Amino acid sequence: MARIRIITVGKLKESYLQEAQAEYIKRLKPYVNLELVEVNDLPAPDGASPAQEEQVKGKEGALIQNLLHPKEYVVTLDRQGKELSSLQFATFLEERAISGDPLTLVIGGSLGLSDELIKSAQMNWSFSKLTFPHQLFRVMLLEQIYRACKINRHEPYHK
């Protein structure tokens, strides 16, 4: 069974997103060993300069780096990353499961991820060139993991 850890910046606040997250976590239980880790979303000062925003992202990135293990395959999620289709992601997930190394997927906060963290990852993945709210994105990621698991097992996915 594949081991997947999702590290996110910030807590999921909206009840409708919490419900959707809980539903996908339940659906994923037969397919993956899933761990969800939340790190604190650090506040940026009102009217923060780009340098101040980079400083906040750097501090959040350091919190995330402290959670990473050497044997993990780390994927950052950022709109500048490589785009994959659902089929390509399913293949990627299958390859990671076969390797036996845990997969860690990292979602940034409202400011995104630090350049240092992105550069240190084995892969930088993008769902789209569009920007998504980081709390909604967590549910979107869980859905894509579930979809990939269904694809890999040749099971129907009811849309």
**CATH level-two architecture:** 3-Layer(aba) Sandwich
What's the CATH class, please?
Alpha Beta
Q: Span between N and C termini?
A: 24 Å
Order of helices and strands: EHEHEHEHEH
| Unreliably modeled segments | none
Tell me the CATH superfamily. Answer: SPOUT methyltransferase, trefoil knot domain
What level of helicity do the residues show? 40-55%
Could you tell me the CATH topology label.
Answer: Alpha/beta knot
Number of strands: 5
Question: What is the gyration radius calculated from CA atoms?
Answer: 16 Å
For the sheet with most strands, the description reads: 5 strands, parallel
Rounded average pLDDT: 94
- How many domains? The number is 1
The dominant shape is globular
Can you list the strand order of the major beta sheet? Answer: 2-1-4-3-5
Q: Please state the structural category.
A: alpha/beta
Percentage of residues in strands:
15-25%
Helix run count:
5
Structure description:
The mean pLDDT is 94. This protein has one domain: 3-Layer(aba) Sandwich (Alpha/beta knot). The two termini are 24 Å apart. Helix 3 links the parallel strand 3 (73-83) and strand 4 (103-107). It is of the alpha/beta class. It has a 5-stranded parallel sheet. It has helices at residues 15-28, 50-65, 86-99, 115-120, 134-152; strands at 2-9, 32-39, 73-83, 103-107, 123-126. The relative contact order is 0.23.
Summarize this structure briefly.
By secondary structure, this protein is α/β, with parallel strands linked by helices.
Key descriptive features of the protein:
alpha/beta, Alpha/beta knot
